[in-house]
Amino acid sequence: MSKHRANSGSALRFLDWTGLPRSRFIESLAALLPDDVRVTADDHWMPCGHAAPKEAQLDKVGDEFLAPEIRNELAGWWLVDRRRGTPHWDFVSTCTLGGQRGLVLMEGKARTGEVNSGKASRSREPNASQIRRAVSHASRELNKSLPGFALSDRHHFQLSNRFAWAWKLADLKVPTVLIYLGWLNATEMPKKPFTSAANWEQCVRTYATGVVPGGVWEKRLDINGTPIYPLIRSLDLRFVT
User: Which residue from 115, 82, 89 is spatially nearest to 103, judged by alpha carbons?
Assistant: First the structure.
């Protein structure tokens, strides 16, 4: 995470939020989660305040997040040349979902223009072809659970890769909560910060049209017995602290 990114908007708010006293942070995170998902003081998350601002890459996290064999499988699924990077996540936490160890993944935005980021993959060969295959395969498999997915590496790439990675984790028997988090009233941001939960939700749903089915949000998807929860949530940090 660059210093520039961490000085405003979504990046700053994730650091401020995760830097809250541990019990207060867990309480506010729990309010975003379904009833059968639990995060406790024994769980781990990244980033963890301004003192530990690093964002997670799921093939590079520690054993406390994912077993080595799963991290290796993820890296090989996404990359041929592993010197290149896998996606960075705004927030990752361990959790317990229905009694199983799982992950909470978040993509956060603070203004309308950020939702449109990631129009196409910028990867070069041979990784470009590998990523295209991974995204296409995930899209086909997700359609078995809920028709209407059209994930792509050519457009809506960030949205597509978020759902592709959530699917792959579930395929590897890791229950996953995927949250699109809107930070409200980031008034230091130019050009249309989100002003309400409804404003944020409408923005996400409109942008996702034609790529993920509208009925996917708030729905538990079953991937061969392992769940994915795609959720749209919002926070105004002024009312958390």
Answer: 89
User: Which whole number is the average pLDDT over 136-145?
Assistant: 98
Residue 200 structural domain = 5-239
Enumerate the H helices of 58-179 as residue ranges. Answer: 68-78, 112-115, 127-145, 157-171
DSSP 27: H
The 10s digit of each residue's pLDDT in 176-235 is 999 999 999 988 777 788 999 999 999 999 999 999 999 999 999 999 999 999 999 999
**CA 219/CA 217 separation, integer angstroms:** 5
CB neighbours of residue 40 within 10 Å? 10
Separate counts of helices (H) and strands (E) for the chain? 7, 7
Q: Band of the pLDDT at 46, cuts 50, 70, 90?
A: very high
For residues 179 and 232, give the distance between their C-alpha atoms in angstroms, rounded to a whole number: 6
Give me the pLDDT at residue 5, please.
52
Count: domains in the chain:
1
Q: Is 171 helix (H, G, I), strand (E, B) or coil?
A: helix
108 vs 8, more confident = 108
Phi, psi of 210 (to 5 degrees): 85, -10
Question: Phi and psi (nearest 5°) for 74?
Answer: -65, -45
Cis status, amide bond into 126, omega within 30 of 0 = yes
